[in-house]
Request: fold
Amino acid sequence: MKTYGAGSSALTTGAGQLKNGETVGTVTITDTNSGGLATAAVGGSYPLTPSAAMGGSFAPSNYDVHYHAGILTVNAAPLDITASNDSKTYGEVKTYGAGSSAFSTGAGQLKNGETVGTVTITDTNSGGLATAAVGGSYPLTPSAPTGGSFVATNYDVHYHAGILTVNAAPLDITASNDSKTYGEVKTYGAGSSAFTTGAGQLKNGDTVGTVTITDTNNGGAAPAAAGGSYPLTPSAATGGSFVATHYDTHYHAGALTVNAALLTYVADHKSRPFGVANPPLTGIVTGFVNGETPSVLGGSLTFTTAATPASAVGSYAINGSGLTSGNYAFVQAPGNSTALTIAAWSLAGFYQPVTMSAPGGAVVFNMIKGGQTVPLKFNIYESAGGPAITSVLAASFALDAVSCGTAALLTDVDPTFSTTGGTSLRYDNGQFIQNWQTPSQPGLCLKVTMTAQDGSTLAAYFKTK
Reply:
């Protein structure tokens, strides 16, 4: 604000018009159009009109005084408008333009409580694009202030750019987990594609080619123990289409798991006849790595079977057990499941007077009288050429009616095997003897079957007269 009134020396007089060295002291200045007010607009018409000259040495009555107005010029006030600084992450898109309130004005430069509403922000170097590089120069240039209560012509506006900073995007690179078997060698290093990146973290279709994988605790070495902690640490991402400076890269280790190597219990194959004790069960363990021997194992090697002397003829498992190790797991060899063979006894007979049918040949029917005694003589051996079985518990007998034509079993006839005079099976003079009393009914065709305790059988065919 500027004020005017009496006592002003802001005047001039016409050249040579004051006489005799006289002077005018002061005049009264009238701000005719109130240009001195703070709100007076730039470019308006503001006369400063003088009157009432007085003072000095002049006598007003000696002069015909004419007053002429001066001009009060209202200049535009300086106004600095600065765009606010901004930031974004590489790969992010930011847009700018009209209607932005992201700016500031010079301290105290807006007058009379006036305000600026918005400006237009121009992203001069396209820093708002997703592809704008980290570290580039991206001015945000303001212009065209509008709105608010200010009048643009009242200000000499100067624009100052803000800065858009493009920050590196976060990128997590994690080495892939891996595994190996104890004793195996795995190597790692540069050029590895065994990694993943954080979901959605690579921008603009960028790719990472390879990383360097460091086997931090030497888990890839052959002696690395099963169950240890073996980080696989990535670093030095390179290749692909990504630019490393565009990313704030954080590396995360994967884990190398060392699994136990397999040792195999291999049982020695054994065989024995039915009804006797098992032989000593033996075997070995195979599959050692790193030049190791059974001395690295704990426990004691044992081979066992579920078979007993009473077990039926057939094949039985012999399984190893008893050993322990942190670096090895134990399995059974496939052949262990049938490593023990329980062999059937060897049968001989029936001897004369019974005639046996030839194996695979026609059935021979022995002609007998009803009610007669037929001695059924035979031998049982532990094995061919082996010791004889002499226990009378070793055999039993059955009698069946059969077809006289085909020797097929008949179900509508159920004969009973009877012994002569209540005699029982005996072992006498190097052979078993069972006296069979034949049925008295004539015309029967019969099959006598001796079943040994191991399940082996002898059978002969008879026909009553």
Notes: The chain has a mean pLDDT of 95.
